[in-house]
């Protein structure tokens, strides 16, 4: 059909173990039973452990049965089951409209006799933009409502949801107004798709030759890959095979030694459970370790998301693609095969606004993907920009008298800080003995001041524009009054300016400069000194190189106490688990389980504590300075350092299928380094603000400036 939208659905049957959990428990139960002879005992354990895999390998289980999927077409909204049979159907002639509720993301069908909640958009495998565009092409009214689907089923809200007529004096409204922002965003994306679909393919010929050459580089390709999985797929396979072989060998050894004692049978049950769990965990890890690979050229797009499946490579010709929508979307869960939300996905639309393909992009950098597509001539559409961040300027901490004094401003008077009115009279004063420190810094491009008491606690913070005083005036006046002022950014600027000025005096040797003591006037001033006859009036001095990220003054951030204590506990628990397993395994040969555990458990405790202490005494620390970032150990070893010009942002990366990690971005948006230990985020943010390092990923939302007046 010309306008047809098929929901995302997983492939057919896949070779997977059937009921692996129940059979694993059955294998452990058989291992605990005193079955004679021992070969029958070992054979039953192996057979029961292999039954799930044999059932999954049966021809009936491996037959590829397509999963049910949803389809929106001129026939209506249907759910297609195996064999192409319609399981659920909402005919087009009976559909008065479709609505998406923002509260729960449910697609609701409005019909003659009421409304029906069909299901969640994610579970149906449908994206809001694709449904919105396809429904409007089919002539179905499409709306976005602010609320939940359960609210739409209340008959008391019928009047609230009534669409007002043109001659109504008061427009319809109620407790469930439409989410105008979300609907406007979808309309804007639809308008961009229409513009891209109706744009002639040869429109680039009207552009300048230089721009066309940079956007469509014939014969050149660009590859974007997600990071290699850690550990690699080969190591995961090797670990799973070794776990299975180790469990099998140990069960055979226990059978040869005899299973008369319960401790031996318990050890065999533990080995059987460990082997089965290791194989299942390795299989699960392999499924999730898929690497997404994009090959972008001006002629086609090649996308592969499942390693080893070359037949499943998606190949799209550039002529079939009108635009590519890059943003949040859906992807198939590698384990269950069900649709799941993805932070990044790509939807390729054709010139008739049909959905050509869903291209997986989870794990890629959205910044790199969008610009790579644009550089090769593809029309890229992204969701509308979010509202600018509204940072907290700390104005609620200002004393009430600040707002009550018209034209008030911050002044330095009588050895302290004060708030003066328009006439210059100080109406509020903070004496010097209460001020422990004054810190000047930059937050989101605006000058701020932070005040600390004598104990080092912060008690006031506000932008200088709200206090109506410039940074230079406050710094100079406070230093003249003898107040403790810290302006690290200004000091770093002066240091850099000094080194830049001195570096121009260097001749052949970068660290040595020669300055003549003679006057500038006179003919002798233009005569260069002879190399074999140094002038005794010349003054030679050495200039130190500019400080780097390690040597520049800065702040050293350590891992939080909570994380260190938690790591201590995990180390001890791991050693205790190994000690108990060793007592179960080697207990029959070392005098029994109780005798072995009596010394292995204390030994595990000591090894866990001492081992982590040896690691902790040389732990890594993050150094933040005006010259850049560096990770150094407590013994002074530099693991890595980045100069200030290479740092584009510092912050938390919420990556898919990973724990939130602290990373350092380049100005282009590429991840440069990862900080493996978790420092205190508040301290790190303040250190970045203090030394002028950008906090957050590059090209983030533009922060709003502080208000000029109270």
**Order of strands in the sheet with most strands:** 1-2-3-4
The helix/strand class is alpha+beta
Regions with little confidence, pLDDT below 50 for 5+ residues: 156-178, 202-217, 507-534, 700-704
- General form: flat
- Radius of gyration of CA atoms, rounded to a whole number: 35 Å
Question: Could you tell me how far the N terminus lies from the C terminus, measured between alpha carbons in angstroms?
Answer: 61 Å
Number of helices: 18
Strands, total number: 32
- Average of per-residue pLDDT values: 78
Largest sheet: 4 strands, antiparallel
Strand content: 15-25%
How would you describe what is shown here?
- The chain has 710 residues and is of the alpha+beta class.
- A hairpin with a 7-residue loop joins β30 and β31.
Structure at a glance:
The protein is of the alpha+beta class. Helices cover about 35% and strands about 25% of the residues. The longest helix is centred in the middle third of the chain and has 27 residues, at about 260-290.
Q: Any key phrases for this structure?
A:
flat, four-stranded mixed beta sheet, alpha+beta, four-stranded antiparallel beta sheet, 33% helix, 710 residues, single chain
What topology does this entry show?
Elements: E1 5-6, H1 20-32, H2 38-57, H3 59-62, E2 69-73, E3 76-80, E4 86-91, E5 95-101, E6 106-111, E7 114-120, H4 121-124, H5 128-137, E8 142-145, H6 149-152, H7 180-197, H8 209-215, E9 222-225, H9 233-257, H10 262-288, E10 293-296, E11 300-304, E12 314-317, E13 323-332, E14 339-349, E15 355-360, H11 366-375, E16 380-381, H12 400-404, E17 409-413, E18 416-420, E19 426-430, E20 437-443, E21 446-452, E22 458-463, H13 464-467, H14 471-480, E23 485-486, H15 488-503, E24 512-515, E25 539-542, E26 554-557, H16 561-586, H17 593-616, E27 620-625, E28 628-633, E29 638-643, E30 649-653, E31 661-665, E32 671-675, H18 681-690
Parallel strand pairs: 5-8, 13-16, 20-23
Antiparallel strand pairs: 1-2, 2-3, 3-4, 5-6, 6-7, 9-10, 10-11, 11-12, 13-14, 14-15, 17-18, 18-19, 20-21, 21-22, 24-25, 26-27, 27-28, 28-29, 30-31, 31-32
């Amino acid at each position: 059909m010309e306008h047809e939208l098929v929901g995302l659905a997983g492939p057919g049957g896949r070779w997977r173990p059937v009921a692996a959990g129940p059979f694993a428990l059955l294998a452990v139960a058989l291992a605990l039973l005193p079955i004679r002879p021992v070969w029958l005992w070992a054979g039953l354990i192996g057979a029961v452990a292999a039954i799930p895999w044999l059932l999954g390998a049966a021809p009936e289980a491996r037959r590829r049965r397509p999963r049910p999927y949803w389809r929106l077409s001129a026939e209506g909204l249907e759910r297609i089951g195996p064999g192409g049979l319609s399981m659920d159907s909402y005919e087009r002639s009976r559909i008065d409209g479709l609505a998406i509720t923002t509260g729960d993301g449910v697609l609701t069908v409005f019909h003659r006799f009421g409304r029906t909640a069909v299901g969640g958009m994610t579970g149906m495998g449908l994206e809001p933009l694709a449904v919105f565009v396809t429904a409007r092409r089919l002539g179905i009214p499409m709306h976005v409502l602010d609320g939940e689907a359960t609210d739409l089923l209340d008959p008391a809200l019928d009047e609230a949801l009534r669409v007002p007529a043109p001659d109504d004096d008061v427009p319809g409204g109620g407790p469930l107004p439409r989410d105008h922002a979300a609907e406007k965003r979808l309309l804007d994306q639809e308008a961009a798709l229409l513009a891209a679909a109706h744009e002639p393919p040869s429109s680039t010929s009207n552009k300048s030759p230089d721009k066309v050459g940079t956007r469509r580089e014939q014969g050149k390709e660009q590859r974007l890959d997600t990071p290699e999985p850690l550990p690699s797929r080969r190591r995961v396979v090797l670990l799973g095979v070794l776990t299975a072989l180790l469990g099998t060998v140990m069960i055979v050894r226990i059978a040869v030694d005899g299973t008369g004692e319960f401790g031996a049978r318990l050890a065999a049950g533990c080995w059987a459970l460990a082997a089965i769990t290791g194989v299942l965990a390795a299989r699960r890890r392999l499924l999730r370790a898929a690497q997404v690979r994009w090959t972008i050229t001006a002629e086609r797009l090649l996308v592969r998301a499942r390693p080893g499946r070359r037949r499943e490579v998606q190949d799209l010709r550039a002529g079939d693609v009108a635009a590519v929508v890059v943003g949040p979307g859906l992807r198939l869960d590698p384990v269950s095969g069900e649709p799941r939300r993805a932070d990044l996905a790509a939807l390729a639309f054709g010139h008739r606004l049909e959905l050509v393909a869903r291209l997986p992009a989870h794990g890629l950098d959205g910044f790199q993907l969008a610009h790579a597509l644009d550089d090769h001539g593809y029309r890229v559409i992204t969701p509308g920009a979010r509202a600018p961040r509204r940072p907290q300027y700390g104005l609620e901490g200002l004393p009430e008298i600040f707002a009550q004094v018209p034209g008030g401003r911050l002044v330095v008077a009588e050895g302290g800080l004060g708030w003066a009115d328009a006439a210059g009279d100080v109406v509020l004063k903070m004496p010097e003995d209460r001020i422990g420190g004054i810190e000047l810094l930059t937050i989101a491009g605006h000058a701020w001041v932070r005040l600390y008491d004598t104990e080092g606690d912060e008690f006031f913070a506000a932008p200088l524009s709200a206090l109506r005083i410039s940074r230079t005036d406050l710094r100079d006046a406070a230093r003249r009054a003898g107040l403790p002022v810290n302006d690290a950014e200004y000091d770093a600027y002066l240091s850099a300016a000094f080194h830049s000025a001195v570096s121009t005096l260097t001749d052949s040797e970068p660290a040595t400069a020669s300055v003549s003591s003679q006057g500038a006037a006179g003919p002798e001033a233009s005569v260069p000194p002879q190399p074999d006859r140094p002038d005794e009036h010349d003054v030679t001095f050495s200039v130190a190189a500019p400080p780097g990220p390690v040597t520049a003054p800065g702040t050293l951030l350590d891992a939080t106490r909570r994380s260190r204590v938690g790591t201590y506990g995990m180390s001890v628990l791991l050693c205790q688990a190994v000690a108990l397993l060793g007592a179960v395994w080697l207990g029959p040969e070392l005098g029994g389980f109780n005798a072995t555990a009596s010394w292995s458990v204390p030994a595990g405790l000591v090894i866990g504590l001492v081992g982590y202490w040896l690691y902790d005494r040389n732990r890594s620390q993050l150094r933040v300075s005006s010259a850049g970032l560096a990770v150094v150990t407590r013994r002074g070893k530099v693991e890595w350092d980045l100069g200030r010009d290479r740092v584009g942002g510092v912050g938390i990366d919420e990556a898919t299928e990973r724990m939130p990690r602290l990373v350092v971005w380049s100005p282009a948006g590429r991840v440069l380094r990862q900080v493996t230990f978790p420092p205190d985020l508040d301290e790190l943010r303040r250190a970045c603000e203090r030394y002028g390092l950008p906090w957050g990923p590059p090209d983030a939302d533009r922060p709003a400036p502080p208000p000029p007046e109270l």
